[in-house]
Structure formats: structure tokens, C-alpha cells
């Protein structure tokens, strides 16, 4: 798949679909043989990380858009790294591990020492993933394949570990201030339209860019936070969710709805009669 043959965001759907069909196999292996499954999934994630590091270094790719990045380099990064499911396996496997831990760790109690160490590591990983490669954003930065390889392979792991730790601790010991913030009810509403936002934002961006016919003055906040553009994205996302996504979810529920057993049907009739 060539990145210039599809819209900027649609390759994510292809990648997620492939990993979605692969995930039941990985989950089954982890459920059927826990120890062997953990070793297998860890090996897969490690292989994905090493392969991503190797390819980025050898082909001189860059997932970080630095000041001296060339168009051929960005296209090569998209074709050989950004759109490859094998490169995203590392964080996908981490998500499977988090789900497994939440499923089978209901009675686990974290000690204060473990909690403090985990919190410190999570904060360190978060800071490293965000600020550890700040030099790549400098105006006078000269491309270094080692920097790009480390950023492309290690930064996603650090970022995902920080958020995974937040999710796990929030479920096991209760929500702190940060956990309560991420559990805010408004995020549930945002989750419902998030897929619509994903599908509509880039076409709106492209349309607005294509409408520019003359030179203009750009400001950081005015360009970055275009209120009119944001409102259109939210409106069209809600429209797409209500008119397309939710009806298809209802169709899915109708076909996949579990039929009640004879015993359950009898109990329902008995309750109605009484």
C-alpha cells in the first residue's frame, strides 16, 4: 500500500483491521497457555521493536517531522514504517497484556513500595517519551538515524507503559485525581463520536487548505485551534455517528443477539404471570 494512494487517515483502518483479526489468536494463546503465551507475545513485541529500529536506522526514516525533513524521507517513512502492521504490533501486544492483567488481577493488592516505584517509572517514561527527543525539534537539528530509530521504536513503548500503569492502578486501587479526570463522563460522550471525528477531520482539513487562494498571516493559536473548523468536525462527527455508525451497531446487535434458553424463557413467563 502506497501512502499517496489513499487518504491520510484511512490506512489506520486497514492496519487496525488486520491486527483486530490477529488479536483473537494472540488472546487465545495467552489464555490457553499463560506462561508460554506471555513468552510468545513478549517475543513478538520485542521482534516488532527491533525490526522497527533496524528499518528506521538502515533506511534513514523519521517518524519525527524535523525541520530538515525532506518529502522523499517522509513518504518513505509512511510507506515502510508508518503504515506497516508489523511496526504497530509492539503497542498492540501491550494492550492485550493490560486487558489480561485486568481480567485476572481482581484480587491483587499493590504494596506502597510497588506503587511508588511504578508511579515513578510511569512519570519517567511519560516525560522521556515527550521530552526525551526534544533536540529533534530544534531549528538547527541535523538528522541522525540513531535518534530517529530510538524515537520510532522506544518512545511508543514508554508512552504506552505510562498510560497502562495509570489504567491498571486506577482499576486495582481506585481512582486518584488523574484517574478521576480520565474517568470524567464527558469522555464517554467523546468516545461515542471519536470514530466519526477520526473519519471527518482530515477531509475538513484538506478542504479548508484547498480554499486558501491568497497569502495570509498565520498565528499559532489561530491556526492550531480554529474554532470554526473544530465545530464543523464535531457536528459532522455527530451526524455520521447518529446516521451511520449507530444504525450499523443496532444491525450487528440484532444478528448477534444471544437467544434466551428454554429455562430463561420459562423464568420470564413465570415472572409475568406472577
UniProtKB/TrEMBL annotation:
The keyword Transmembrane helix applies. Residues 5-234 form the Acyltransferase domain. The chain crosses the membrane at residues 12-31, 38-57, 89-105, 117-136, 148-168, 189-210, 230-248. The keyword ATP-binding does not apply. One of its GO terms (molecular function) is acyltransferase activity, transferring groups other than amino-acyl groups. Keywords: Membrane, Transmembrane, Transmembrane helix. This is Acyltransferase 3 domain-containing protein. It comes from Acanthoscelides obtectus (Bean weevil).
Amino acid at each position: 500500500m502506497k501512502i499517496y494512494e489513499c487518504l491520510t487517515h484511512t490506512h489506520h483502518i486497514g492496519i487496525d483491521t488486520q491486527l483486530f483479526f490477529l488479536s483473537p489468536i494472540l488472546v487465545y494463546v495467552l489464555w490457553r497457555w499463560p506462561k508460554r503465551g506471555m513468552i510468545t507475545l513478549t517475543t513478538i513485541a520485542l521482534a516488532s521493536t527491533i525490526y522497527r529500529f533496524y528499518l528506521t536506522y538502515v533506511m534513514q526514516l523519521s517518524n519525527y517531522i524535523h525541520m530538515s525533513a525532506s518529502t522523499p524521507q517522509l513518504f518513505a517513512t509512511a510507506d515502510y514504517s508508518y503504515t506497516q502492521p508489523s511496526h504497530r504490533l509492539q503497542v498492540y501486544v501491550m494492550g492485550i497484556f493490560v486487558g489480561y492483567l485486568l481480567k485476572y488481577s481482581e484480587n491483587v493488592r499493590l504494596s506502597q513500595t510497588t506503587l511508588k516505584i511504578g508511579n515513578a517509572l510511569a512519570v519517567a517514561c511519560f516525560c522521556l517519551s515527550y521530552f526525551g527527543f526534544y533536540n529533534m525539534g530544534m531549528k538547527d537539528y541535523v538528522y541522525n538515524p540513531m535518534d530517529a530509530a530510538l524515537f520510532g521504536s522506544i518512545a511508543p513503548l514508554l508512552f504506552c507503559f505510562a498510560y497502562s500503569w495509570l489504567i491498571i492502578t486506577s482499576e486495582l486501587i481506585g481512582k486518584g485525581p488523574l484517574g478521576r479526570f480520565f474517568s470524567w463522563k464527558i469522555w464517554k460522550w467523546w468516545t461515542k463520536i471519536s470514530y466519526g471525528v477520526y473519519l471527518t477531520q482530515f477531509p475538513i482539513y484538506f478542504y479548508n487548505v484547498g480554499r486558501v487562494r491568497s497569502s495570509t498571516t498565520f498565528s499559532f493559536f489561530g491556526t492550531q485551534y480554529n474554532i470554526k473548523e473544530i465545530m464543523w468536525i464535531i457536528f459532522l462527527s455527530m451526524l455520521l455517528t447518529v446516521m451511520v455508525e449507530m444504525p450499523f451497531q443496532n444491525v450487528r446487535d440484532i444478528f448477534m443477539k444471544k437467544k434466551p434458553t428454554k429455562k430463561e424463557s420459562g423464568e420470564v413467563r413465570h415472572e409475568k404471570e406472577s
